Amino acid sequence: MSNFIVRTITGIIFVVAIVVSFLNPRAMVLLFSIVTGLTVWEFCGLVNERDGVHVNRFICTVAAVYLFYAMAGYNSGLTPSTVFIPYLVSIVYLLVAELYLKEKDPINDWAYTMLSQLYIALPFSLMNVLAFRYDGTEVRYDYVLPLSVFVCLWLNDSGAYCFGSLFGRHKLFPRISPGKSWEGSIGGGLLVIVCAVVFALVSEAKGFPTGYAPWQWAGLGLTVVVFGTWGDLVESLFKRTLGIKDSGNILPGHGGMLDRFDSSLLAIPAAVIYLFTLTLV
């Protein structure tokens, strides 16, 4: 079977799995807790191949998954804020443990350990902030916002590829990602903004208001595009530094978990900040 067919089938299954999971809060939490664990596990395995780096892969992964569940429980109103205490204890342990392990470069170990949490665990856990929203009387689950982040990322990738293939002349970041062009990035961004505005207008016309004006949806789309592109470039820099082409091979034709979710690792926190900023306006 050709790589194109494998890549296409994997991509379809991937998209369907994410879309379907968002329709049910339990399915969403389960799927993305697994995604969080697999991504942190993959990350720790890659950095442990570096000379002098010894990250506790198991505890980093367990801590990341626990943080995701803790955020889901807290934001859904099921658990109090004390649910975060075990996570904080695990972080303290990972810091203190270096006193006794006698590794060659504990600073490297600390840096990569904390990076696994800040770069992967925290962004994924913030998806619960988008999904569970307090409307003044109760907490309700709303899949529209978290799903829209991924839809914007997918539209941006598709638009950037099409516009880049047709009009790409000027490299966006040749040192990190030679295949990206300014024309592709701008085209993908415009596609996302137009689709976001159309979505807001159609939802309003059909009697399903989203709670945000069209210009606010356009702003969300632009935010996801900019930070999603940076997220892609950050992961490309990570792989170039390690001297690898793909972060893994768990997804046939698409590489590893970091390869598939790289854009979302910056887009999700950026979307949360943007939406919180709107409440201050």
Feature tags:
281 residues, mainly alpha, two-stranded antiparallel ribbon, two-stranded antiparallel sheet, 12 helices
Query: How many beta-strand elements?
Result: 4
What oligomeric state do these chains adopt? single chain
Overall morphology: globular
Question: What spatial order of strands do you see in the largest sheet?
Answer: 1-2
Q: What's the number of helices? A: 12
Radius of gyration: 20 Å
- Helix-strand sequence: HHHHHHHEEHEEHHHH
Q: Would you tell me the overall average pLDDT?
A: 92
User: Low-confidence parts, pLDDT < 50 over ≥5 residues?
Assistant: none
Q: How helical, in percent, are the residues?
A: over 70%
Description:
There is one protein chain. Strand 1 and strand 2 form a beta hairpin. This protein is mainly alpha-helical. 39% of the residues are buried. The protein has twelve helices and four strands; from the N terminus they run αααααααββαββαααα. Helix 3 (57-75) runs antiparallel to helix 4. The chain is globular.
List the helices and strands and how they pair.
Layout: H1 3-22, H2 25-47, H3 57-75, H4 85-96, H5 98-101, H6 106-125, H7 127-131, E1 132-134, E2 139-141, H8 144-167, E3 171-173, E4 177-181, H9 182-205, H10 214-242, H11 257-261, H12 264-280
Helix pairs in contact: 1-2, 2-3, 2-6, 3-4, 3-6, 6-12, 8-9, 8-10, 8-12, 9-10, 10-12
